[in-house]
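User: hey, got a sec? need Putative znf667 protein folded
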Amino acid sequence: CEECNDLFSSRESLKKHAKSHQARECRFFCSYCPFSSDYAGNITRHEMTHRGERPFTCDLCGKAFGTKHHLVAHWRSHTGERPYECNACDKAFKTSSDLS
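Assistant: Yep! Here you go:
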């Protein structure tokens, strides 16, 4: 999502999520930009990107990430794990978003 940097496994999921950013009254607002949400947790995670916070650190190489999802995808670069297989060509990928 270009608005909040969340990742989705399909365009349909992204489209459904994008509606959450449409103009409406929200209860929580980012202190740094116009982003808003109905959920405080979304604001907390979003504001971390403004502050450059990366609380998820790889135990093997020390690289840090802003989300656990990105750390897990990175971890697979060390293990070689590719759990997402294409049904059409049998190629395998580290993340489900790489399938599309």
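Quick note: Residues 40-51 form the longest helix (12 residues). Let me know if you need anything else on Putative znf667 protein.
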